[in-house]
Amino acid sequence: MAQTPLSMEPTGWYQVAWSNEIAIGDVHTMKYFSRDMVAWRAASGRLSVFDAYCEHLGAHLGYGGRVEGENLVCPFHGWQWNEQGRNVCIPYEKRPNKGRRIRSYPVVERNHAVWIWFDVDSRPPYFEVPDMFTAFGDDPSDADNYYPPIPGGTLFHKQRELHPQYIMENGVDFAHFKFVHQTPFMPEFTRHDFDGPVSYVDFTIAFEEGVTLETASSGVYSVNAGLGCSITKSWGMVENRTMPAVTPVDESTCDVRFTVWIGKKPGEEQATELTKYGKVMTDLVVEQFDNDVEIWSHQRYSDPPALSQREFKGFTALRNWAVQFYPGGDSSYGRDPARPESGAIVPLHPSAIAATA
């Protein structure tokens, strides 16, 4: 991939693990946004994410560090740090060092995933990670109608040369569906608008041969929170929901994660794990996403792009909206979906109702 001109430090929520990867007592090392980090789970089950280095003498807490109750203990001198990154114990002193603090990151566990909030100026979160079911107006109990996505319904690519914005632009790129995913027609967008840091992109689509736009009775709803968090719900076809997540590692690479929920087929309502049918359907969905990843990994970010007349409105609106997440960007853009430049289309589906409820 040619080096992108886009910053690799956009504000937002980013997936750094699946929840089952970090058990109670675990200290998990990782690197994101060019920063060494550790994720650790306290005895209570609470998960915290820190910068990796002890503020005392700089020991890496991921190599020999341990969890003791609700604190993370440095392997070098036993200093203890609580979930806020504050020192609460120096074992050879009467008092902790209250003046030093390890940078900690807001953490949310949702949709079987671990999300951290990143902002170069350390501003607190101002939007949420959408729930895979309630964001589309569904009841949380509807999750029981899907096979558990963990561990069999996931895909992970480590340090691919791509950018989080690519996946957002992919959602408004109607033409690629026919050529990359072999759909019988190009999708018809039924919603494309913005509510501050959240975008909604819904469209009619089908994958069966012979189906036309006029006869299609299936499609996709999509809710995108910032550039790092996207969820989709398919309707009128094989029941599935997906969660692609692209998280910057350094100035040129990102980790790519993909999670798939497949609706249970009749007779398998009590299944507590992915069945043969569920795995076959999962693999089909994963294959489609992987086709996109292969292209993104070798893509050059064109600015300005050579857009066709039909593409201009969607891509321009998306790129204008994305500016707000970059350092120095305008966070006021997109708060009024009625603005002509938002590309707003009258919402027709449950995602709109859920967003305004």
From TrEMBL:
**GO BP of this protein:** cholesterol metabolic process; lipid catabolic process
Organism superkingdom: Bacteria
Pinpoint the Rieske domain residues: 13-116
Q: What is this protein called?
A: Rieske-type oxygenase
Which co-factors does it depend on? Fe cation
> Per the record's keyword annotation, is Glycosyltransferase included, yes or no?
no
Carries keyword Lipid metabolism? yes
One Pfam family assigned to this protein is Rieske
Q: What keywords is this UniProt entry annotated with?
A: 2Fe-2S, Iron, Iron-sulfur, Lipid degradation, Lipid metabolism, Metal-binding, Oxidoreductase, Steroid metabolism
What gene name does this entry carry? kshA
Q: Which CDD domains match?
A: Rieske_RO_Alpha_N
Q: Which PANTHER family match?
A: 3-KETOSTEROID-9-ALPHA-MONOOXYGENASE, OXYGENASE COMPONENT, IRON-SULFUR DOMAIN CONTAINING PROTEIN
